[in-house]
Amino acid sequence: MRSVYARRTAVSLGLTTLVGTLVLNGPAAQAAPPTPPDAATVRTQLSQLTVKPEGSMDGYSRSKFPHWATQYGQCNTREVVLKRDGQDVEQDGKCAAVSGTWFSPYDGATWHDAQDIDIDHIVPLAQAWRSGANTWTTEQRKAFANDLTHSQLIAVTDRVNQEKGDKDPAQWMPPLKSYACTYARMWVSVKYDYKLTVDSAEKTALTGILNGC
Fold first, then answer.
1. Is the dihedral of CA 23, 26, 28, 30 positive or negative?
2. What is the largest CA-CA distance in the chain?
3. Looking at the whole model, is its pTM more than 0.90?
4. How many CA atoms lie within 13 A of 160 on its CB side?
5. Cis, peptide link before residue 136, omega less than 30° from 0
6. Nearest to 59 by CA among 138, 161, 157, 3
7. Based on the number of CB atoms within 10 Å of its own CB, is 14 exposed (0-12), middle (13-18) or buried (19 or more)?
8. Which of 38, 55, 202, 209 suits a disulfide with 184, CB 3.0-4.6 Å?
9. What is the phi/psi pair of residue 71, to 5°?
10. Contact status, residue 23 vs residue 30, Cβ threshold 8 Å
11. Whole-number percent of the chain with pLDDT over 90
């Protein structure tokens, strides 16, 4: 296993490649949601994140994070995640989910209509912008917004996702308390891999959650 230093160096050297490439390999991309590192690893990652106040929203637009991108055929990122995270999902000829069952880990709700499901960015786009993504190219932000290789996208209840908005874990956590550790692990691992910053309140909240895992 590579050392944390070696892994961090690889991430630093390969950031442009990491955020500049979409997963476009067809149905093979429909794997289970990526599992974040364990709590001990994530605590180390959190300790290495740069702590600084969030930046401004100047210049921000969701259009600067183009989504949902085509992953293969007529399937865009949203439809791929709906298929991946659901059970018995049936899609029409244009890849739209027409039936299935989805369990939202944020609130424990089960849904049978894809219209009740949002695909959440664990680290919201606006949050990423204020944490360093404002310096990325549009192609890098596009890759971040459509990332199927990290713990960044998940199917959840739409109204719960809307309540979350662009809040960080110091401001919002999933209502289902049993999901707190997983959510914190996902959040930190994404920020670590994308070299995004955390503010002091965010780090304090994440430290408390992870210490209880």
1. positive
2. 48
3. no
4. 24
5. no
6. 138
7. exposed
8. 209
9. -95, -40
10. no
11. 85
Token pair belonging to 12: 């630093």
Please, what sign has the CA dihedral across residues 135, 141, 143, 147? positive
Locate 29 and state its tokens: 């991309």
pLDDT tens digits for range 187-196:
999 999 999 9
- 113: which 2 tokens? 């209509």
Length of the chain: 213
